[in-house]
Structures are given as structure tokens and as C-alpha cells.
## 1
Amino acid sequence: MLLKLVDVDKTYRMGDVDVPVLHHVNLRIEEGQITVIVGPSGSGKSTLLNLVGGIDRPTSGSVFFRGHDISDYSERQLTDYRRDRIGFVFQFYNLVSTLTALENVRVSTEIVRDAMAPQDALQLVGLSHRLDHFPAQLSGGEQQRVAIARAVAKKPDLLLCDEPTGALDLATGRKVLRALVELNTNMKMSIIIITHNVAIAGIAHRLVRIGSGTIAEDVAVEQRIEPEDVAW
Amino acid sequence: MVAALDRKLLRDLYAARGLLIAVTMILGLGISAYVANLSLYFNLELSRRSYYAQCRMADFWIDIQKFPNAELERLQRTPGVSELRSRIVMPVTVDLENVEKPLSGTIISMPPDPMPVINSFVLRQGGYFTPFRREEVIISDGFARARNIRPGDRIYVLLNDRRQELLVVGTAISSEFVFARGPGTMIPDKAGYVVLYVKQAFAEEATNMEGAANQIVGLLTPDMQSRPQLVLDQLERQLEPFGEATSIQLKDNESHNQLTSDLKGLRTVNLIVPTVFLAVSALILDVLMVRMAQQQRTTVGMLKATGYSNGQLFVHFMKFGVLIGGFGGLLGAAFGFWLAGYMLNLFRQFYEFSRIINRPYPSIVLGCIGLGVVIALLGAFRGVQQVVKLRPADAMRPKPPEVGRRVLLERWSKFWESLGFRWQMVIRGIVRHRLRTFTGVFSSMMGAALILQTLQIDDSFRELISFTFDRMLVSDFDLSFKDELDYGGFIETRRLPGIDYAEPILTVGCTFYNGHRSKRGAVTGIQQGARLTVPRDTVGDPIEVPETGVILTRRLAEILAVSPGDPLVMVPLTGARQRLTVPVSRVVESFVGTAAYADFNYLNSLVGEEQALNSVQAKVSTESGTVREFYRALKQTPRLQGFSALREQKSQLIELLKPLKVVNRFLIAFAGLLFCGGIVTSSLISLAERKQEIATFRVLGYQPRQIGGIFLRESLIINTLGVLFGLPVGYGFAYFINRAVGTDLTRLPFYFENSTWGLTIVLGAIFTVLGYLPVYRAVRRLDWIGALNVNE
Ligand SMILES: Nc1ncnc2c1ncn2[C@@H]1O[C@H](COP(=O)(O)OP(=O)(O)O)[C@@H](O)[C@H]1O
Ligand SMILES: [Mg+2]
């Protein structure tokens, strides 16, 4: 068991009003799987991912990572957890515009002990020929793949992708999905992808549907398809 | 290998280089002013000390009528005395062949062979006395150079009513005469006053002082340095059999006093400017860093999500501060050291030291670099704090749009609507970015204040000169005599060729006492209705000298803490030296010296004389022939002690102040940078922030000039506010500095020309336009097509 969420609640406080976002979320995720979480925009997907990734804390309930309750962690422990266990991929890539592709990857390899060589990470996502390009010189898909390389290069136990194809066209989106699937098959990396696009669920082992703050559906994907066959 | 984050840092710095150069320059200028002033002060003080040590500067001087040298050994045993030397000191008139007017000088006896005696000198040209003749002289180097006299030349002195020829064997400088002033003159004048060191044997014979002396100079033992008066009282008591003794301590020595208070003034006054610069650079950096924190929001979120700890991010962003501070400090230290050397050179003209030591002070340099870093860190702190506080989950979310607030002015809708959208934009921006507005206003306020204050110093000097020479002392020549003349002597003097009009003056040197306060000075007795010395009250109106009582100048009244109506005790330095109690009748203004005035006859009766005088003031007709004749006659006037030409003193003073103008020009340039530094940086920041807005304007067809107009409007508002607040602040600075530069000897009038206010405003306008140039250039060169395509 990689991840177990028990009765997780998340409520934001906006001035005087409480905005409940997640309510009694219970979820289990196995090692080595690709999980796709789908739901309409505003349904709390990113919030859920942030809780799992240790950049936010639940209002109540617990998040267990390999049996450890990370909701009890101190700030310091959470930072170490993010550093050693988690890789993040964001919808808008969040590359440092003043650093080249290679240097952007080094931003993450430099803080962990047993990281990949940045070049190797970029090769995994098929970008060996773009090492010295700045983000502005790369296409959206290439930028997103640099972001994936950056997340993967520190050899995380869990890769979290928030709408990784959200800003991309179909063809480029497929390339990014291909890179993710390959990481999963070749390196046995556990991956959670959140998206409002149900079509992507085809590449996953598991599909979790979230609606108005609770888990609406949690099923195994029967018929997995190749990224190239995904369509939207 | 450079860490990836450090690489990011360097590229971020490079991308913001325009702004950073501006901040670094302002910071660097502040630091350089600190370095320059502190090292200038330390170097001058070091040079002074080394000079004093080299010349073995005395701790005290005692004037006495005739002291047998044989008694010196006994006197030397007085407790607290470390060493004594007796010498002959005598005023003389010097006659140079190619100079029409007689010049004042002082002869001082020296041992025939070079010895490290107290108050010795440092040879500059030629050598010490030779054994070959008695009539050898070593003269002050400044005079020799001003009058083009070289070793081997001959000069003539009128000494004891005899004209003596002396052979110049060398020239020298001495710590005793850093500010060499002739008797009766106010301004040090190298060309008009000379110190003549002669062999002791010559001096004794020429002054009829065989085996005797008229001045004792001495050094105190270390334990008595702080209590010289105790020793001097004892010495004076032992000297009673040899005539009246008057003593002076080092701290009352005029040259020393002027020098040390000059140096102290230099140190305090010049620290205002750098402090202002540092404050402004910290503020600007604060604005920059807060903006950077906002700009790098998502990057910070990404870094935190990746596992960078708060500590690591804190260090990373603080490095901006360290780099800017360190670089600004380094630049400032280098420039400051150069500036110190430059100013030290300027000071060479004022102070004739044996050598000017220009030593770098690593501790000052390091301290100032450290100061730069501290200032930069302070400036960076808030921005970095925002970075660290940012929660990663929030950083990932798009930034909520800025709250567009309505401005108070909008209530007045008719006016608001008539403004046009560009004024509206600017006014909203000014109200929204409070801190930025504050920084801009603060920095232009300080700039305007410094401009005003710098210009004002010039006003004060001009007023000082005009008050002193055009309104108070209006004679052409002052002649002073060795001893008192009777009224017949005055009539005789008045008959000298060339004199149109003359007035007698009696000056009585004395010590004033009021309770525990005392001050050495003199009372000048002037006749009723005198036209050549015109005491004036504090508003500048001439006043009549009352028939009884004394009039004190303001500074003297302050020192003695007396006001009109109070009794004052005065003890003359010569004659019967009776304690006299006189009423203070008025207080008058004076900027040079601490004078006291009384009615001529009243003062005479106080000291038991009748119509006695010891100087004469004269108006001389300006035809060149008569002046020449007047000079020739003066050279033959026997008991003449000193002679001063007031017109020349006035032009000398003006000459003396020229270096100040050079320094002032620097200061105004500094102040100008400060004036627009804040608004220029904040314009450049908002230019970067509003790239997309500007791109949109360009698409709509706006010219760069029209877009630049937005920034010009903003800087107009900010700088107008700055000038508005800057004028009163500058008034305050000027007042503070005016107080700080006053010494016992000179004070500056606190005076503003109306044009100074106007000029400050005009300079403000000029600097506003100059400051707009880089902003306009940035608008023109903005890559707006690129900005359209980027989704920030
Ligand atoms: N920091 C926050 N403060 C207040 N409300 C928030 C915050 N983060 C998210 N929300 C709200 O929570 C809800 C879910 O947001 P999010 O998890 O981003 O949804 P999704 O990723 O599914 O689109 C939204 O209504 C959003 O406005
Ligand atoms: Mg989301």
C-alpha cells in the first residue's frame, strides 16, 4: 500500500466563511500503478493532490504514506517528504525562465542525494537534443516534458501530475502521456494524474472520479489503451 | 560547478541590471561618502598628530616682559612641567624691495644649531643656520613661495626702529603656524604675514634682550595634560618678579583651535549625506525585492513543492541583498578612497602639514562594505520574508487580481472625469502602491533638501563676507602699534600721505569672567559716531556704542552666558590688571571672532588712561599714486606692529572659499541622483510590471512618447511632493549644519537668498527631466511584441 487517505476533510477559510472543499475522502493507492483522478473543475482535485504531495494539510483525517501519517509531520519533515518521496508536475510547467532545460532539471537533482544525471532524465522524456534551450525556446509539450524530467530526476516514489496535458494540444499531449507511461513501465514509478478530461483515464490502471468533494467512483480500468490512441 | 539556483540568481540579476545598477549606485555613493569622509578625517588627524610630534608642539605659551634665561632651570623643576624653552618673539615689519606695502612678521629666536627644541620647524628649502654670519633667517615657506623668495635672497625688517638686512638661508613650516595670521587680520594670509626664525644671538641683540627672553613655551607631564591650568598658575606665580606673565594653553591657541574644530566639523557635517543615501537605497531595494517576491511566486511554489526548505529559499533570496550590498559596498569603498585622496589634495591648500598621510583604512573599507551588506539585507528582508511565508499551495494558484481601489479624488467626479485616463491611471497607481510612492517622495524630498542646503551654504558665506566687510568693518587699512600712543600720535598718523579719514582705536586685551565661565578676548574702544567700525545688531542695523558699559558679540555673550544688563568682570592682560566690573549694555552680531566694544573714552578711563590708542583705522584715497606713497610712509613708521588691508582680506576670503564651491558642485550632482533615484527605479519597476498594458497601448497606436507621458506624469506628481516637503527639510538640514560648523572664531550667518529657493525648484525640474530620459529609453526599447505573446 503506497497511499491511504482516511476521512480526509479540507475546508478553506475565506474571511468569515468556511468553504468546504473535500469531505470524508477515503482512498487507497497501490505501488507501481498509474491512477487517474477525474472531476469537473473546482471539484477539489488539486486540493487532494496538494494534500498527498505534502504542500498542504488536511483540516481533519489522515494521509498515510507507506504507513506513516504525514498529516502529523512537522514543517521540516514535510519538506523532507516532498524532497525525497514526491515529484510534482504542474499544469503550467513552472519552469524557471532564466534557466536552460538542463539547469531546470538540476534545480531538483541538486537537493537530493541519489539523483539521476540530469541528462539521463531529459533522455527519458526524449529531450536529449534540447539540453541548452531556455523555456521560451521550447514548445509547450517540450516544456512539460522538461517539467516531468525535473520531477522524475530525483527518483521520487510517487509522481504527482496536475493537469499535465491541460495546456497542450492533442498531439503534444499524447507525447507527454507516452513519457509518463514509459516511466511507469520501465521504472515501476507510481503516478497520480489529475485531469478534467476522462479520455486520459484509458492509460491508467485505476480511475477515481471525484465530485463535489467526495469520491464518486473508484474502479480498475479494464481495457488500457496506448497514449497514441487517446483522443479528446 | 555553480549550483542551478545560483545560476538563476545571476541571470535574474542580469535581467534586472538597469534597476540594480541604479540601486547599487545610490548605495555605493552613500558608502563612498562614508569612506571618503572617515578616511579624510582620520588621515588629516593622523597628519596633524604626526606634524605636532615632529615639531614638538608646545602644550602652553607664557608671554612675559623679560625673563633671564638663567632662571629657566629652576623654573623647569615646577611639578607638572616636563620641559621648558625660553625664546624671543617679536612683531616686526617686513620690507620687500619689490612690494610696495609693508608686511607683518614675527621673529622667533632659535638655537644656532639644529636641535629638537619645543616648537621647532620642518625645513622645506635651503638649510639650517650656518656658523658664518649672525644675520641669517629661515622664513615661513608659504610666504616664501607666495612672494617668490629663495634661499640666498635678502630681506629687510624694521626691528626696534632699526632697519636690518637678513640673509634667507632656508624656508620652513611649523605646526605652531598652520593658520598664520598677522596681528589685526582675520584671515590667514600666506603672502601678507611671515614668521622669521633667527639665531638667538641676533634676536637678543636686536631686541635688547641679552641673556633674556620674552616667551616661555613648554610641555606638560602626561599626568597633567588634562589639568594645564594648575601648572600654569604655579608658573605664573613664580614668574611674578619678571613682569606680567600671560599664559595660553594649547586648546586656546588660535591655530590649533581653528584646525581641530575644522576637522571635527568636517566629520559631523559630512555624515548627513551618506546616511540619507543609505536610507534611500534600503527603501528602493525593499520595493525591488517585494516586487521580485511577487513576480517569482510560482517559481517559489515550485521550489517548495520540489522540496526546498524555507531556510534554503531564505538564503537564496537573501543572496540578492548580499550581492547588491557587497558590490555597492566595494564600488563605494573604491570610489570613496579615490574621493578621499582628491579631497585630501584640496585640503593641502588649507593646511600646510609637514606631510599629508593618505593611508587606506582596511577597517573602514571592510566596515563600509559590511554596512552596505547590512543595508541591502535590511532592504531585502521584507521581500524575502514574503517569499518564505508564501504557502506552496497558494503559490500554485493564480494570483488574485489586485484590488482596484477608488481614490478619494474620484468623489469629485467632474474634476476626476476631466483628468483623462492617463492622469487617472497614474493617480490610482500612486495611491495603490503606497510604499513605492513613499520611497519616491522620500528620495526626492531628501534630494531637494540636500540641494537647498548645499546652495544655502553659499548664501551664508556671501552674507558673511558682505556683513563683515561691507557693513561692519569698512576701513581700508588698520594700523596697529606696539604700545599705546597718545592723541598726538593719532594726529600724526592721520597726517600720513594718502589718508583721507582716520579713527583712533584702543584695544585692551583681557580675560572676561562670569561666575565659573571665562574667555580670553579684547575690548575695542571706538569713538562716538565711528564710521569705520560699525557694530550691528542681530537684524543688521547699526547701533551706537553707549557711553558706559560694553557691547558683546553674540558668540562671546553665549560663551559667557550673559545678557544685556548683566555685570561682567574683565581683567586686562597688561597694566595694573585690576578686576573691573562693567555692565553689558548690548549684544551685537558678528560672524568672525569674539569681539567686545566700548566707548573710546570709557575704556580709557577704565584702564586709567586718557585718550590713549593703539591702533588707527583709515580710509585711503584710491588713486594708485597716493596708495604707493602711503605704503612708503608706513614702512618708515617706527612703532608700527601690524598692518592690514581689509579689501585684500575680503578678496582673500573669497579665494579661500573656492574649493568649497567645487565640493558643492559634487554634492549637487549627488543630490540630483538622489532626487530622481527613487522615482526612476519605481518607474522602471512599473514599466516591467505593465509590459502587457503597454503592449496593448502600442497595438492601439500609442507612440512611445505618449506612453512615456504616463511615467512623466507620475514622476511630476512624486517630485512635486518631494520638493514641497524637501524645502522645509532642507531648511532644517541647513540650520543643523549652520550650528555644527560654528567655532569660537567663526560662525556662519544663517541666511537664505530668495533665489536659493527658486534655484532648488528649477534644479528639481531639471533633474526630473534628466530622470525621465532612462525611463523613456526603456519605453522605446521595450519588446512589446514579445510581451503580447507571453502569458505571465
Ligand atoms: N487556498 C484556497 N483558499 C480558498 N479557496 C480555495 C483555495 N484553494 C482552493 N480553493 C477552492 O476550493 C475549490 C477546489 O479547488 P481546486 O482543488 O483547485 O479544484 P480543481 O483542481 O478540481 O479545479 C475551488 O472552489 C477553489 O476556489
Ligand atoms: Mg486544479
## 2
Amino acid sequence: MVQIFLIIAAAVGQNPYQVTFERACAAYSKDDYSTAVQLFEQLITEHVVHPFVFYDLGNAYYRSGRIGPAIANYERALQQDPHFDNARQNLNFCLRKTQRRLEKPAPPVWEQTLLFWHTALPPAAIRNALIVVWAAFWSLLVLREWRPVPGLRAASVMLGSVILVLGLSAWAKSHPPLLAVASESRAPVRYGPDDKEAVHFELLEGDRVLVEARDQGWARVATADGNRGWMPQSELTLVGPPYEPAPGPDHAGKESNT
Amino acid sequence: MHAAAYLGFVWAAALGAGTAPFVKATVDSTSVGRGSSFLIRIEARGGDIKEPEIPDVDGLVIDKHPQITEDQFHFSLGGGRGASMVRGYVARATRTGKITIPPIVVRVDGQELRTEPIELMVTEAPASVRPPPNPSRIRGENFANDQADSPESALTWDEAVFTTSDVDKKEVFVGEPVRLTLSLWVIESDSVQAGTPPGARIQYPTTEGFYALEREPRVNRQTRDGRQYQVRQYQQILYPTVPGELTIGSWHWEGFAQALTRIGIQTREYDRQTPPITILVKPLPDQPANFSGAVGDFVLEAKLSRYETMQGTPIQLTLRLAGHGNPNAMGEPQLPSIPGVYISDPQKDTRPSNDAQGFSVEKTIAYSIAPVESNDLTIPEIEFCYFDPQAATYKTLKQGPFTVKVLRAPGQQRVVFGESVPSDKVKLDVVEESILPLIAAPAALRPGGSSSVDELLWLLLPPAGYVAAATLMARRRRFTRDTRYARAYYAKGKAHKRVRAAMKATDPSQELYRALVGFLADKFDVPEAGITSADVERLVGEKGVNGEPTESVLKILRACERERYAGAPLSRDEIEALAHAALKGMEDIEVALRRD
């Protein structure tokens, strides 16, 4: 349906997402960062998943003075394209602006061990490779049905193994550990999901944490140095997927002075 | 295993010692060219064997002195004694046509044994290009060339195998390549073999003052003093690094040669040394300031990835330098300083290769250049200065300048680069530390994600295709293997065609009869020939198809039978009615069978 809509829109010379994107860029160039953020976020709400959009949204958040959502969006851009140098550069720049420069939580050990090779590959590349190998696998099966050729069984088994590995990789890419970035300047992390619980430690804006569980507006988070606790989800920007708008107060309109 | 084979051989030899006397003559080819040599081989076995008596043969010149001499003695377990003998004689045909070598007499144990006569066909052209069977005739320490027996063509061991070393230039500039060739010459002959002891490696001469690169050894054929040699060449490309008189040391080769001679296989050990070579190395003339250090012959190319870009968006400048010269001393072109741009560390790739002219090098240097300002960017001329030893002068290659149109990035008057870039590697124009600008031109944006319909379709299509293909092929296989199924499947279509054809036939009632009977035969998988209405009644009864469809079909069949035997032809209308009824009857029977 969306594609039909896009085809029609293209036929009349307008891609509504492109128009929104250009409006967002225009707002950004006029230093109207709150509008830029709003328009970029609108694209993401409409499920436009593109590393450039995340990157530009990260820029708009940075210019709005919100370094937490900026970091989250640069992370999203890198999730989509691990070779996106501009995003990496801006992410590093923003991380240097954070007060603690907390390390990013590492992926699970099994993923580091089994899928060490896929870190630098974009999810789309893995998906495309999976589709190609998948088609090749079934073609081999058809060939086996049609005419038995020596070595087809071994080739099928090999391709099947590759499919398993690529499938695991694609699944891991689409279900990454839920990363979140603290979007408040100071966010207390408590022992339990209740305001009455004692504060265990504090996150500062831009600190990246792993979300281990979510319960009624609270998130159990873990830092790279092993600290765990509960904090309101509203004080976090989830990197995703799914890609949700950054919550919290709107500080748009002012240049970062961090 | 080997021991058992050896024992078997000894046992067989022991038994053989007592076998009957035997003599045999063979030639290595019964078709020879006039003037070319061939070998007559005589084998004999027995107790006491005398030398063969070689006859004179018209049209052949036979050297009655044997070139192959082998004698073996063995003793049987029972105390008996035996011997075997092999003699090889070189012969040459002097006329064309058929020549018969008569039986050759060999006296064995006092008996006069004769070989079988041998027939030769001598042609004008040489029968083969194979070298003569006995290429060398040792005379003391000398070889004789096989093509002539004259004493002046005698070949010595030193002429059979020797070494040389030479260079292509004896006067060069510093850095100019000198090709050193070390050659091992071995006379080309089947019966002379030369080599180095197993595991020994080629020892190159000392080349102090040179930077040396080895090339792959190669083998070629050369003629020297009228003789064909196989020459194994080892080459080094030497780049002199200092001026003055430099010496390439002696090449020392140790090896051996084996030759089949009149008195059997002889081995000769060699210890060869070539004389040293002196090279005069001239200093380079006064060097210009931009001299890269490269000496040789080079080309320079420069390529820009785009001639239009946006502030902060890098373009790629690729320089390619290729040519012949010392890969370790060729330097590289330098990118001049460009104000207002960010220049990445160059990515370098050097690929040396080995071609007929010596060593060539291809060096690629890629820069990422990101303009900071929106004004047009000019990349100035890029130079590479090298010394050309052929022309004895310095040459400068130039590329550029290049002009790049730089568009303004949205929201930015000026792009700046952060502190993550190493300050010693880049040329920066920093006004403030900040983020990189927006990227304003993604491809057509559209919603998407990992669960998009396209990807789901791509995942489902292959298995669906497989199921379709597998079903189709299983069906084809069933049609091939299961004739009953195939007949039943195609029965209706086939019968319909036959009924339609019956209407146009000269004997329509009989064609109709055959169509109906054929349909039933196919359906019940029985032979069609000879089926009568009574058979049909029995068949359908066995299958449990009774009632109106059966009755209708039987009526049609009987009507057709009556027409045939009673001689009362049916009218056109009756035939059409029967055909219509037959089609309906077949349909009804098919439905009834399917129901059952």
C-alpha cells in the first residue's frame, strides 16, 4: 500500500517523506532546531529508517542542546550503517562532551563469540546476503529434484549452515540488546521500580546503558561497569529498534553550551 | 612388501637360470627416415653366450661396435649357472624402401641361435623428431657429436656443462637497474643430465653496494658453437646505491652431470666459478628541490571522484604512479598544502610486479579531501620529479590543477572538524570545535524495516517455487513410471479426440466403437485390442460401475457391433446421436469411477 502511494507520489513529482526531510533541513539551516527535530522525528514515527535521517536528527538534537537524544540517534545511524564515518565522528564528539564518558555496554558474550564477524556489517547487507543464500539453497533443492548431481547434498548442507549463521546474524541485528541513553542531566537509578526506593547510583546525560527489563514505565538498566538499577523510562532515550521519539522536556531552540 | 618382491625376483631369477637358451632382436622403430640413426637391440639368455654376428645389410650402415653392453650372471638354487646379455648397435639407413635385417646369429651354449628377421620401412623424411638413440660416444674424456663422427666435433665434459654470468650494462647511474644473468648451460641431449645435489640452493654472487631483487628463474634453448644447449637462467635486478666502482662477485656453482657413454653411465662433478664483474656507478647530477628519489621511467595519473561536492562531504583524489624503478626508493608525489580543506591520511597501496623489462611498480595514493568553505576549491598542480637514466636528466610529471565546485551545506556557513583528527596528519582550518554538518541528500526516502513485505516475499518465494517445481517433477515422474495412472489420466482427452475424429472417418461407427473401447481400456488398464461389449460389461461390473452409465455405453457398443455384423449402415444423424451419447457415457463412467 505504501509502495503504491509512493509510486503515485513519485508520478506527480512529490515524495512526501522527501518533502518532510527537506523541510527539516531548511528549518535546521534557519537555526530552527525544534522544528527540525519535530520533522525528523515525524519521519521516524512514519517508519522511515535511514542512517542519514538518524544522523541529521542527532545533529538537530545536538544543536537543541539535548546531547542524550543526539547520542541515541548517532547510535541508531551506526546501527544501520556501521561504516558511517560522519555519524561515528559526531558520536565521539558528543561522547567527549558527556561528563563521565561512560563506556558503551558490550553485546552478550555469545554474540561477541559467534557473530564477531558481523559487527561491521549493516543489517541490510546481512538481510540481502541471507535472501541470496536462501534463494540459492532452494534452487539447489529444485536441482536435486530435477537431476541428481554429485556434491549437491554437500552443497545443500553447506548452504543450509550458512543460512543458519546468517539467519542468526540477521535476527541478532534486528533484535540488538536494547540500548538507551540518559536524556536528563541527572537521572537517579534506584534499587527498585518505585520512587520510594533508595537511590543506587546516578546517570548523567549521554550515559549509555543496557535496558534489561521494562515494567510499568520503569526500566531496569545496567551500565558497562556492572551497576544495575531501576529508573523511569521517561528519563531515557531508547536507541531501539523499535525507534521511538525521545521523551522528556523540549530544550529545542538553544545552542548547546555543554 | 619390498622384501617380498625382491625375494620373488631372486626366486624367479634362480628358476630362470635353468631355462632354455633364447635370443631376440628388436629395433626401436620399424619406420625410419633415410639418414637417421636407430638402435638394433639384441637380447640373449643361456649359459655361455658369445657375441652376436652382425651381418652386412644392403641399405644399412651398422656400427658393429655395440653402444649398449649389459651382461648379467646368476646362479640357481640347485647350483646351476645362467647368463643374460644385451647389445645395442647403432644403424643408419642409406636408401629408402623396404629393408630386411636378416636373422642375426648368436652362439649360446654351443648352439647357433638365430633371431627373427626384421623388416624396416625407410622413408625420405625422418620418421620422427626424436633425438638419436646414442647421442654421445665417450672417447676417453671427450664426447663426440652424434651428428658427425669427425674428431674435431668432439665434445668435452667442460663443453657439455658450463656456467656464465653477465650484465646488461656496465656503466650506470646510482639507482639505475642492472640486470645480472647467471646461466647454467647444459648440452641438449637425452643422455646427458645435469643438476645440483638435492636440497642445494642457488648461491647468488656477492653484490655489495647494490639493492638486489631476484626474478623467477627461467629456462630457454640457445645455440652456441653450433650446439644446442638448454640454458637455465637466474636473474637479479641490481640497483646501485652508491657511486663508484662496484663489483659483482664470482658465481660459484657446484653440481654434477651424468652421461650415457660407451662404457656405461658416467658421472662428473662440477665446481664452476664465473669471473667477477665490475660496474661503474656514476653519481646523479645536481638534484632539483622536488626530486623524489626515483630513478627509472614513470607515469603519473590523478583522478578526482567528483568535481562537485558539498561543504563537509569529502571527495576522493587518487594518484597513480607506475613505472620501472627500485620500488623501495621511488618516493611518491606530494599533495601541496590547500588552505580551507580537511585532508585525510593518504591510503597507500604499492604493487610491485615482474615483467619482461624488469621490476615495475604501481603505487596508488588516495586522499579524502573535505572542503570547509562553500567557495570553489582548487587543488593545485601535483608534481613528481624523477631521474631518467636513459636521457641522463631529471624529468617532472605534472597533473592538475583541479577545480571542484563546493555547494553550501544546510545550516552551515563553515564546516569544522573536531579534535579526533590527529593534528599532525591534517591541514585544518578550525573556527570552533563542533559536529559535522547535516547530510542533505539521501536517496528516495521510504518507510521500511526488517519486516517489510518485500523481504517477506523474497523469503517465501523460493520455498514456494520449490514446492511447485517438486510437485511438477513428482507428477512427471509418476507419468513416466506409473503407466496405469498415465493411461487413466489421459483416457478422457484421448477418447474425446478420437470421437471427434470418428465423425470425419469413412467408417464412423467403428471409429466410435474403438474410441469408446479405447477409453475403457485406458481407464481399466487393459489391452485395447479385441475388447467386445461383453468384455466391457464384465470389466465395468468388476469395478462396481453399474446402472445407467454402463447401460448407455453398452447400448452404443452393441449398436456399433450390429452395424458391423448386420451390414446395416447407420445414418449420419444416428452416428451423431451415438457420438453425443458416447461422450456423455464416458463422462458418467468417469464420474462414477471417481466416486468409487
